[in-house]
Structures are given as C-alpha cells and as structure tokens.
Amino acid sequence: MPNERASGALRWADRVLIPFEDAANFLAAIAILLLMFLGVGQIVLRTIFNAPINGYIDLVQLSMASMAFLGASYCQRLGAHIRMDLLVGRMSGRALWSLEIIATLVGLFIIGVLIWYGAQHFWRAYTLGDTTIDAEYIVWPSKLLVPVAFSIWFLRLSVQLWGSIRMFRSPDAETIAVVVHKEVAEQAQDEIQDIMGGTEESETLHTRGVNE
C-alpha cells in the first residue's frame, strides 16, 4: 500500500507539471515563429522601402531567452537533445538508476545556482530600469524568463530524481516520470508513430465535421 501511494503521488506530480512544460514550450515555439516573421519584415522593409524596423537587433536579443530556455524542461521530460546516452545506454538495473540519481543531483545543483543568479540579474534590471543600448527597450521581462524557465526545469529534475530513487529501490517496478533509454531506430519509430497518430486524429476530426 505505501508503494502504491508513492507511485500515485509521483504520477500525480508528473501529470501536474506537464501542462506548464507544454505551455512554456508552446511560448518558445511562438517566439521562434514571431522572430521569423520579424526577420522577413526586416528584409522587406529594408530592401524595398528602405525603412528598417527600429531596434530590430534589440528585439532579437530580447527573444533569445524565450527560445533558449522555455523549452528546456519539456526536452528534459522527453530526454531529447539533452542527454548523453553513450554510457547510460550500456547500463541497466541499479547501476543505471544510481547513475541517473547522480546526474540528476548535479543537474539540480547547477540549475539551482542559475535560478539564484538569474533572479538577481532580473531584480537588478527591474530596479535600475535597465534598457537595451539601441532602441532602449526594457530588458527585465526577458531576464525574468530565465529564472521562471529554470524553476520549471528544476521541478522536472526533482520529479525525475524521485522517480530514479524509486527505480533504484525497485528496478522491476513500472517506470514513472523517468526517461527510458531507447535505441535510435526505436526513437525514430516512436516519433513517426506520433506524427502519424496526430495526422489520423486530424483526419478523423475533419471527417466527423463533414459528416455532421
């Protein structure tokens, strides 16, 4: 019974965190899309009308934080573009989960330090009214994104640490809130299935709408 309660609590923590990670990753995607439109607009206005966007470079710099950090926790959850599986992929059982625990603890320490100093940089920019050099846009919203994004990442690492400790104690238990190593071919197949599943769902909804 205690193990079932612990598993249920871990599953609940993982499920609660997912919407925040998805929302942050969505905002990062929106920032990338807007930056693409901004770049096209800059080229068109400068080339055709000789009227470049005021503070274009400043806007690009301010958008960097959202694109670089908001999707970090989402990638951590999926184990995408963050992990180094050359060694981890060769391990199993308690040896694997002990390594995961150590790596997660190191990650928690590093992200915790970055949250602390990121929050200090934000507060300094907010209190001083810091602005960009060229167009003098305020910079504190961009700096605020750093501790916010890292805080979500810190929570994800905490949940994964919990899950890794649970797996270390019971290696045969169901994997919850941890990244499971997959071969490259298996990972590619899963991504294809996700894409095909999304396409089939869209076609089903479209067909249902037409029939109605």
Mean pLDDT: 85
Count the beta strands. 0
Structural class: mainly alpha
- What best-fitting shape do the alpha-carbon axes yield? elongated
End-to-end Cα distance: 48 Å
Question: What share of the residues does DSSP label as strand, in percent?
Answer: under 5%
Biggest β-sheet strands, sense, barrel:
none
Total helical segments: 7
The Cα radius of gyration reads 22 Å
What is the H/E string?
HHHHHHH
Low-confidence segments, given as residue ranges, are none
Helix content: over 70%
The total domain count is 1
Describe this structure in words.
With 212 residues, the chain is mostly helical. The chain has one domain. Helices cover 78% and strands 0% of the residues. The chain is built from 7 helices and no strands. It has helices at residues 2-48, 56-69, 72-78, 85-88, 93-128, 140-169, 184-211. Helix 5 runs antiparallel to helix 6. The protein is elongated, with a radius of gyration of 22 Å. The N and C termini lie far apart (48 Å). The mean pLDDT is 85.
SSE blueprint and pairings:
Blueprint lengths: L1 H47 L7 H14 L2 H7 L6 H4 L4 H36 L11 H30 L14 H28 L1
Short description:
This protein has 212 residues and is an all-alpha fold. The protein is built from seven helices and no strands.
Comma- or semicolon-separated keywords:
about 210 residues, mainly alpha, elongated, 7 helices, single chain, about 0% strand
